[in-house]
């Protein structure tokens, strides 16, 4: 498998406006700097988790999920390990495209989408319209995405601009395992609860509870996948004394139960190790 650090493909993606570009590779390094494409991007990863940053938000892409990145969206990619495998399909933009393709979002991958995606593993580079067989399959893949991806998951957190809120969210990040209440934050930072509530809604378009809950679940995902902690340990580290409450909240936010991640974690590790051996 090619090494992702071979950057030639980034310029090749847009060289032919009407092609579908396919690229499967081991990441090979710690990040891909900020860039953009004139094509929409389907990105799936194996063997670790990936952080994807845009000017507006920070996204967390765990295993068994994909992110759709609309054309023209500036983004940088930061994997948890250089051994992460990235599977990319880049599609031309058309005026008749579904509104689905205009939004950056993360979706779970079901068995059908997984089979279709793995079928493309044999492809690399440009798929031209003249190659009717492969191009038709690639077009069908894109057309199916809105049908197979009904529920976007809130695995993203917006960046605040207000300096007061920047300090507050940094505090929350550092005290993720504590029982931090809304009143505690208001008192800690010398702001009324009413003003604080308005600040969260105005700056982040979500409440304090929504923000802190998503932050805890994203941290929980990282601890499960990267640090290999047990579900009990993770629940405690992100501030939940009740395992059922943590599990139910995790399922609501992430879309699958934490036990599913633990069950498949060994498989993903073996996949990654096999790909490292293949690479060497």
UniProtKB/TrEMBL annotation:
Matching Gene3D superfamilies: Homeodomain-like, Jelly Rolls
Keyword DNA-binding: yes
Superkingdom field: Bacteria
Keyword set includes Cell cycle: no
Domain HTH araC/xylS-type: 166-264
InterPro entries: AraC-bd, Homeodomain-like_sf, HTH_AraC, RmlC-like_jellyroll, RmlC_Cupin_sf, Tscrpt_reg_AraC-type_HTH
Organism expressing this protein natively: Parapedobacter deserti
Alphabetically ordered keywords of this record: DNA-binding, Transcription, Transcription regulation
Lineage, highest ranks first: Bacteria, Pseudomonadati, Bacteroidota, Sphingobacteriia, Sphingobacteriales
Coiled coil: none
Protein's name according to its UniProt entry: AraC family transcriptional regulator
């Amino acid at each position: 498998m090619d090494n992702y650090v071979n950057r030639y493909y980034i310029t090749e993606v847009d060289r032919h406006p009407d092609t579908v570009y396919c690229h499967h590779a081991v990441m090979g390094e710690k990040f891909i700097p900020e860039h953009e494409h004139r094509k929409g991007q389907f990105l799936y990863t194996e063997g670790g988790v990936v952080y994807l940053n845009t000017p507006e938000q920070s996204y967390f892409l765990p295993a068994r999920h994909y992110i759709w990145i609309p054309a023209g969206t500036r983004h940088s990619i930061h994997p948890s390990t250089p051994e992460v495998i990235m599977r990319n399909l880049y599609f031309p933009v058309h005026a008749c495209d579904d509104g689905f393709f205009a939004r950056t979002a993360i979706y779970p991958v079901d068995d059908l989408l997984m089979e279709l995606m793995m079928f493309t593993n044999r492809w690399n580079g440009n798929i031209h319209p003249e190659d009717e067989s492969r191009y038709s399959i690639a077009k069908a893949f894109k057309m199916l995405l809105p049908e197979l991806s009904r529920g976007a998951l809130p695995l993203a957190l917006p960046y605040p601009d207000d300096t007061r809120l920047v300090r507050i969210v940094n505090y929350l990040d550092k005290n993720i395992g504590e029982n931090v209440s809304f009143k505690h934050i208001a008192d800690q930072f010398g702001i009324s609860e009413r003003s604080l509530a308005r600040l969260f809604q105005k700056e982040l378009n979500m409440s304090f509870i929504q923000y802190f809950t998503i932050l805890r679940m994203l941290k929980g995902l990282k601890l499960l996948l990267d640090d290999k902690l047990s579900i009990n340990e993770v629940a405690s580290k992100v501030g939940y004394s009740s395992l059922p409450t943590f599990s139910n909240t995790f399922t609501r936010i992430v879309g699958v139960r934490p036990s599913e991640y633990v069950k498949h974690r060994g498989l993903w590790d073996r996949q990654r190790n096999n790909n490292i051996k293949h690479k060497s």
